[in-house]
Amino acid sequence: MAMENTTLFVLLLNVLLVFSASLVSAEQQSQASAVGDPGMQRDGLRVAFEAWNFCNEVGQEAPHMGSPRAADCFDLSGSLTHKVTEADNRLGVGDSFPGINPENINNTDLYAIEKELYLGSLCEVADTPRPWQFWMVMLKNGNYDTRSGLCPQDGKKVPPFSPGRFPCFGQGCMNQPILCHQWTQLKDGTMQGGFSGTYDLDSGCGGEQDGVSYYEVVWEKKVNVGSWMFKHKLRTSKKYPWLMLYLRADATKGFSGGYHYDTRGMLKTLPESPNFKVKLSLDIKKGGGGKSQFYLLDIGSCWKNNGAPCDGDVLTDVTRYSEMIINPETPAWCSPKGLANCPPFHITPDNKKFFRNDTANFPYSAYHYYCAPGNAQHLEQPVSTCDPYSNPQAQEIVQLLPHPIWGQYGYPTKKGDGWVGDARTWELDVGGLSSRLYFYQDPGTSPAKRIWTSIDSGTEIFVSDKDEVAEWTLSDFDVILTQSGTNLMNKAERKK
Predict the structure, then answer these.
(1) Is the dihedral of CA 336, 338, 339, 341 positive or negative?
(2) How many domains does the chain have?
(3) Could you write out the DSSP letters of every residue in 315-379?
(4) Per-residue pLDDT tens for 136-148?
(5) Which domain holds residue 137?
(6) Hey, which residues does 479 pair with through a beta bridge?
(7) What is the pTM of this model?
(8) Which keywords are on file for this protein (predicted)?
(9) Going by C-beta distance under 8 Å and a sequence separation of 6 or more, which residues neighbour residue 36?
(10) Is residue 392 in a domain?
């Protein structure tokens, strides 16, 4: 009898072990990473740099800097083997390189696009369901010279007009920055490199100075240990009061959020709402002042007002953004007296819909600002339309603030969550939340597939009235596909 009991116990134990193993296997299968470097743990780093003027173009290269695109990509096998050279990074208008269309060699905007593709080809890593290229450091100058005629209005070319609310110190205010590159080196088991510089063209690579704009991203990692730490710093100045700095995971092929041309990046599988989460560790050292719209997360995509995917037609394509701002000084412009700054309705996690005039139930303080695309034909009044000049096409933006209503998705629930002194690792149900946010669509059209081509974190210091400094560290970044998203990736692999 004792032997039978022992045999039965062993049999049950084996069944439990097999069942537990199958549960672990199912969990592993149900969650796959959409990025080429999950959690930023790969020793062979791939990172690139892009700088933009106000309307996501180049306009004019900074003297002796080449086109404002660069990369630091290497493999590690005992020593660092760099994939990109200084000559590659210094390529500028008029310089030829493999694969460039001769028609674009003297066009500053189109040249930068082709240079990004070329750098991507040097950095590319083979993978399934498709190869990937690099994390992208994005720097943007918010100055807008309205007399330049450089920026379109909702995709339409417009003549110069008188200055208004946009900052500009005069001709040349939309300039590209000086780029100083500290090539990644290996020393005593630690790898470190960085990009830094300034928009003040009479300054150099001497580092940060009072009264002068400055940006810096330093990456550091111990070999075979943990995640890359990306340390960011951004300083505004009187001449450059509106600057943006983000670390982005962009589409490896196709349009990324805010662009109308083929890009390169880290998202080897494009996440689709509601089937993905985002994990990241964020430690904010300095917030950047009251005008710093610090984005715990910013997601971007593109689809037309009729729900169709974007095709590069800037007159009908619309960039869509959703941004969670965690600066506790950022107010809710959406209010019962500011309905134009609110989306027309809010949907709860359990799918209840509250319209913005429902003052008893609409969570006004959960929204900083909503603005609709300027090319939409059936907008519900009252409405604010988005700035028509700062993207190459019309845009729609949903800006969120910490609020208890977002808690079920893992987002911050109160002012101060994740801010200076409250470093955290976040796991955000970005797919679930983004599936319930309001985005404009023409009446009677099929709902757009909400496929996100850019996911990033960083700050936009929005027209500060004094010099401000933001400083933060980002690590452990990952985009995790949940069950349905994993199935989509597997189908893509089978089709390949």
Answers:
(1) negative
(2) 1
(3) TT-EEEEEEEE--TT-----STT-GGGS-SEEE-TT--EEETT-TTT--GGGEEEEEB-TT-SSP
(4) 999 999 999 999 9
(5) 42-495
(6) 278
(7) 0.92
(8) Signal
(9) 46, 125, 127, 131, 132, 133, 252, 266, 268
(10) yes
